[in-house]
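Aim 2 progress update. The chain analyzed this quarter is reproduced below.
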Amino acid sequence: MDVILIPGFWLDASSWSDVTPALEAAGHRVHAVTLPGLESADAARAGISLDDHVEAVVHLVDDLAGSVVLVGHSGGGAIAQAVSDRRPDRVARVVYVDAGPLAPGDPINDDLPVVGDEIPLPEWSVFGEGMLADLDEEHRRRFRERAIPEPARVASDPLRLGDERRRDVPTTVITCEYPSAQLKEWVAGGAPFVRELAAMREVEYVDLPTGHWPQFTRPAELGRLLVDAIDR
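Predicted structure tokens:
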């Protein structure tokens, strides 16, 4: 299976490097992506939109033969969702890694501090304790060294969706910061921020207790969970 790995904010394709061995050992073809504006710290980011990120992955899907699995971490989950909306007949499964689908018109996160045309990785105090779980000082140092500013519009642009067939695509949610039981309670209770997840027709929840960046804190376990999800 062709597996497309979409990183979250501030990260490029290399952020998946400790996760991919499990996928490759299982015989899958891995395509970790670096999204527009994330090529380097010096890359141009002015004017890069959320749609630009979505279209970059759509083009990759179109270049591949057969079905694909999309894996999106954090803000990359919204990109995976939008790609499944534009190519629902090509996507065998979407896996959200500490992420979930957004409702049409929602932004990924328009509260992050913007500097000019970009969003640098904020100070750690911006993130809650749950997000930072298991991210020790060495992880944080390496993360900050590799972090690339996110194009500002990617965080604030409304998510554009239009094909209801996206809700038929099998979905796996790997929960890290919150246990799956909490997420299910929000869905059952009609919480507005999970209304799109509640509309998905085939969803499975898998727990991986750690912080928001399991590709750094528990990469081997994340790789195995991805293999399991693809096998299903």
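The beta strands are 2-6, 29-32, 68-73, 91-97, 118-119, 150-151, 171-175, 203-207. The first helix runs from residue 20 to 25. These observations will guide the mutagenesis experiments scheduled for the next reporting period.
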